[in-house]
Amino acid sequence: FQVHNKRSTPSLWKCVFLTELQVLYFLSNVCVRTINVLLLFYSFSQLNVLPSFGFLFDIDGVLVRGRTPIPAAKTAFQKLVNSQGQFLVPVVFVTNAGDCLRQKKADQLSHILGVPISQDQVMMSHSPLRMFKRYHPKCVLVSGQGPLLDIAQDLGFSQPVTIEMLRAKYPLLDVVDHDRAPGVLVSLCFKYFSVILFGEPVRWETNLQLIIDVLLTSGYPGNPYHHENYPHIPVLACNMDLMWVAEAQSPRFGHGTFMVCLENIYKKITGKDLKYEALMGKPSELTYQYADYLIRAQAAERQWKQPIRTLYAVGDNLMTDVYGANLYNRYLEEKNSRKDSKTWIQAKNELASSAATHCRSVLVCTGVYNPHTEVPLDTKESRTMIFHGHRDFRFDPALVEPDHVVPDVNAAVDLIFQLENFAPN
């Protein structure tokens, strides 16, 4: 045995050595594969599969021009839904339009975009009026067009009165059009406690006249004017857009233009400024607070546990979409020092505290914005720039500087997915 063992020792050691090499080779392969798996896992871990951001989309000039869909919109929204048509990120449509109910706008968007849109994803300019519950049981005068009574009642108002109803009650007040006779008299409340401006009306002269009558008589339009009744009864206005884009080559008058007329008529008569109890619609902070709330509600409904930290507001108008997003971003950054804000006080009981830390503005070139017109950076130039925003908003060049400028909404979605490193399942 010993002899055999001695003779076989070289072979035995050779076998042992070869076995060790095989084991080492095997282990090295296992290590390499393990490292590759870890690297692959790490690379996937850097991609977010649950959203920590939300979209705020303007409609006119971003998704449509008038009634004509913008081609890039349908492509963009195919990227935002899964195979079951569910949104991969929270989305709210924030429009300054106010001439219809949310469900009708949701149905229109579903048809245009080819994806199912819920009314809970639609925010009209008047949507924040749901929070002003102290006016809901009172008699209010409403101005605008569309199904005003249905809209007001859907918002919670129990005694809305339209301009046409007021005109029928007081036929002697509207005499600009001599050939326009009033209809049948209807029974209305005599005291109007507030005026709600939903949007631009059809007959401006009638609306301007009767609203002035209500304001200068403390809500009793059949009485003589009393200029000493100041401040006047509350006025709540929705949609401050001076102009908006339709199929025409140039922008058209918006509700902001009507408000300019009303403000100047009131001041010309009384020598005092018309006061607003609240201004809603972009670019007001109240509008973005409410949109933020709707984004959070969507995320909660989908049981997305990750907080929504960043909002991306996609629009076509420097003075509304970009200004409003940047103003809200400023609010988010300074909210601890802004708790004495009147608007914040009104909203804080209705809206839960936001987890968002930023609101980024993304400007598209398919609507009002002209890429050949730049915002002046020089202070002297900015003083001479024509500001199309509302009277009660001061012009700040920093607020009309978008965070990003892209050709269209499809490019906006691609950019935001890239910025967020977002890879949906």
Write the layout of secondary structure elements.
Blueprint: H1 2-45, E1 53-57, E2 64-65, E3 68-69, H2 71-78, E4 91-94, H3 102-113, E5 122-123, E6 139-143, H4 148-155, E7 159-162, H5 163-169, E8 194-197, H6 204-216, E9 235-238, E10 243-244, E11 252-253, H7 255-270, E12 278-280, H8 285-301, E13 310-315, H9 318-334, H10 342-348, E14 358-364, H11 379-384, E15 404-406, H12 409-420
Parallel strand pairs: 1-4, 1-13, 4-5, 6-7, 6-8, 8-9, 9-12, 13-14, 14-15
Antiparallel strand pairs: 2-3, 10-11
Helix pairs in contact: 2-12, 6-7
Structure description:
The chain has 425 residues and is an alpha/beta fold. It has two domains: 53-125 and 283-339 and 352-369 and 385-420, 3-Layer(aba) Sandwich (Rossmann fold), CATH 3.40.50.1000; 129-279, HAD superfamily/HAD-like (Rossmann fold, 3-Layer(aba) Sandwich). Helices cover 39% and strands 13% of the residues. The protein has helices spanning 2-45, 71-78, 102-113, 148-155, 163-169, 204-216, 255-270, 285-301, 318-334, 342-348, 379-384, 409-420; strands spanning 53-57, 64-65, 68-69, 91-94, 122-123, 139-143, 159-162, 194-197, 235-238, 243-244, 252-253, 278-280, 310-315, 358-364, 404-406. It has a six-stranded parallel beta sheet with strand order 5-4-1-13-14-15, with helices on both faces. It has a five-stranded parallel beta sheet with strand order 7-6-8-9-12, sandwiched between helices. Strands 2-3 form a two-stranded antiparallel sheet. β6, α4 (148-155) and β7 (159-162) form a beta-alpha-beta unit. It is elongated. Mean pLDDT is 85; it is low at 39-46 and 376-380. Belongs to the HAD-like hydrolase superfamily. InterPro entries: CDP-alcohol_PTase-I, HAD-like_sf, HAD-SF_hydro_IIA, HAD-SF_hydro_IIA_CECR5, HAD_sf.
